[in-house]
Each structure stands twice: as C-alpha cells, then as structure tokens.
Amino acid sequence: MATAPAPPLLLLLVLAFLGAGAAGWQTKTVVFLLAGQSNMGGRGGATSGRGTSWDGVVPPECRPSPRILRLSPELRWEEAREPLHAGIDAGNVVGIGPGMPFAHAVLRSRRLPAHAAVGLVPCAQGATAIAAWSRGTHLYRRMLARARAALAQCPSPSPTPKGECHLAALLWYQGEADTISRRDADLYTARMEALVRDVRHDLNMPNLLVIQVGLATGQGKFVDLVRDAQKRVNLPNVKYVDAKGLPVANDYTHLTTPAQVKLGNMLASSYLATL
Asked: Which positions make up the signal peptide (predicted)?
C-alpha cells in the first residue's frame, strides 16, 4: 500500500509557527467597575409592591453570555447573570441595572477583538452618599479590593489558559442621597473630583476613564443642584451621560427595566466614543 507523501518542509514550518502562536495567544478581558448607589445596583423590576422581591424578568439585552463575566462577592470570575449586584448591594432587593445591557452593547459594536470578553465588577451600594465613598471608607476599600482582584485573577473565556485584563473605566451612578442636604449638594463637585483623583492614584491609573451618570431623580429637593455639580466636574477623561427623562418606576426614585437598558446603551456609546 502506498504511503502518503511527506508534507513539504515549508508547510511543516508554517504549522509549527501557528502552533506556537496559539499556545502564546492571550484572550483579552476588558474590565469595568460599576459603582454608586441603587440605580447602579439595579432596581429594575424590583420596585413594585413592598419591594420585597424582583419580578425575574430578564430582557434580551440582559441575558447571559459566555463573553460577559462578573466578579462574584467571593472575588471569583463567573458568567454574569441578573441581578448583577446580587450579594454585593447588601440588604437591598436588587433587579436590573445598566451593567448587562452596557456589556452587550459594547460586544455588539465589534470594537473589541473577536474573542474578547467584558468583565463587570459590581460595587454599588444603595442609599449611600458620596461621602461614604471617600478614601478610607469601607465602600472605597471594597471597590479597590475588587478592582485589584479582578485584574489579578484575569479570566479567559476561550480554551486557552492565558488571559490579559485591562481596566477600561469606572461607571459611576450616584448622587440621589446627596440631594437631601444643601451642604452635601454644594460639596458634590469637590467630593467627586477627590474620589476620581484618589481612585486613579491608588490604582496607579492616572488616566482611568470615568463615566458619571447625571441624576434622573433624587431623595431630596436639591436634585438640580447635584446635577449642576456633576456637570461642573472638571477633570480630564471624565465623561457625563444624562439619565434625566428616562422612565422612572412608581417609587419615583428608581429607573425601570426599559430605562436601565437604555442607560446601558448610552453608557456604551460614551465608552465606545473614546476608542
């Protein structure tokens, strides 16, 4: 029986080169911190009645994907599922937030490499004023610890064992609690600028992108003052996305599920515009 001819030397060299490249190829995970208070934590579908449960409705824009990962409360990467802030936004009923629709929109844009994943690091805590996020507080330390753990345990959504993580942005939606006191509203700009500077310094990322969401609602009467303060933040690479006008639930405070999907898309557009 005739034997098959040996492959040409050039073909062998090409196959060896490709094999070496595959072994060293790195899968990229683009990581985003999600921080702030309840509207970042997500209350879509969790505001009716006494607020004791989430309705469980997951729109298509929020469904799981093997290319969307979440850092769990135990600091492990896992496939992201709603509610994204389960186990993080302690003591609150959580539902749909902007994180999952944001991740889907970023992947849908095809601006990332073909095999890239989006890693979401939920950090939000409901009913917290910005002072509760200043350097040295529990929430600040937790956010930085989760950011560092996310980068140290870089996941790979493909069969290749190696991964490369990049912290791309902090998505920040907070300020409703600062509308109660005139003093807190007046201090908001300075406190937000200090927070951005501290996070960038402590993560050694002086140009970290920050996208803040302009308030749609508030817990007090100084909503417009806080919104104006948000717009006055004057630091490089800080973007502003306005939630005003998005549908609000019957509690007059929290965005509905469709509003959160819309906000996620708006945040994605702001991030993609920087690429």
From this structure: 1-24
Q: What are phi and psi of 211, to 5 degrees?
A: -115, 115
Return d(Cα 116, Cα 257) in angstroms, integer: 27
* 239 three-state secondary structure: strand
Residue type, position 168, single letter: A
- The yes-or-no answer on residue 198 being catalytic is no
Our answer to whether residue 254 is catalytic in this structure is yes
List pLDDT tens digits, range 30-85: 999 999 999 999 999 998 755 579 999 999 999 999 999 999 999 999 999 999 99
Q: What phi and psi values does residue 120 have, to the nearest 5 degrees?
A: -105, 135
Q: Is 38 a catalytic residue?
A: yes
Per-residue pLDDT at 111 exceeds 60:
yes
The one catalytic residue in 85, 184, 254, 270 is: 254
* Helix, coil or strand: residue 212: strand
Report CA dihedral (129, 38, 203, 109) to the nearest 10 degrees.
Answer: -140
Specify the pLDDT at position 155: 75
Give tens-digit pLDDT for 85-106: 999 999 999 999 999 999 999 9
* Helices 182-202 and 138-152, axial angle in degrees (round to 10): 30
Q: Over the stretch 165-177, which tens digit does the pLDDT of each residue have? A: 999 999 999 999 9
Which residue out of 109, 166, 201, 251 is catalytically annotated? 251
**Which is the catalytic residue, given 38, 89, 156, 178?**
38
- The model carries a pTM of 0.89
User: Is 33:147 a contact under the CB 8 Å cutoff?
Assistant: yes
Sign of the CA dihedral 134, 136, 142, 145? positive
Note the residue count of the chain: 275
68-71 vs 77-79, strand pairing mode: antiparallel
